[in-house]
């Protein structure tokens, strides 16, 4: 009976860990496929920086994972090109970044991540 309880406890623990992992970070493709679902929600994504622009500690960087690419807007510094990053922020659609958007050739009205924080790995 003790062994059965241990196996049951292990099965419950493994189920919880699996469910927790499934709720973790999203892929860029998940976000871009249905941006309305993620709009104004916190989202965590990871990838490599393929381009970055910064002025006075603010800027934007283009993040790529194995599924796609998304622009990330930061008000507290941007990681360098080639860095591996995990970032959390809010998904926005239909934005206008004015001169910054023109500088980085960002299509008006696209989907971006307004970053709250990032960690370089």
The mean pLDDT is 79
Fraction in beta strands: 35-45%
How is the CATH topology named?
OB fold (Dihydrolipoamide Acetyltransferase, E2P)
Radius of gyration: 18 Å
Number of strands: 5
Percentage of residues assigned to helices:
25-40%
Structural class: alpha+beta
CATH class: Mainly Beta
- How does the overall form come out from the CA principal axes? globular
* CATH-derived architecture: Beta Barrel
Largest sheet: 5 strands, mixed, barrel
Walk me through the topology:
Elements: H1 2-22, H2 28-33, H3 35-38, E1 42-55, E2 58-65, E3 68-74, E4 84-93, H4 98-103, E5 111-120
Parallel strand pairs: 3-5
Antiparallel strand pairs: 1-2, 1-4, 2-3, 4-5
Summarize the structure in words.
- This protein is an alpha+beta fold and 121 residues long.
- The chain has a single domain (25-120), classed as OB fold (Dihydrolipoamide Acetyltransferase, E2P) (Beta Barrel).
- It has helices spanning 2-22, 28-33, 35-38, 98-103, and strands at residues 42-55, 58-65, 68-74, 84-93, 111-120.
- A 5-stranded mixed beta barrel has the order 1-2-3-5-4.
- The longest helix has 21 residues, at 2-22.
- The protein is globular and about 60 Å long.
- The termini are far apart.
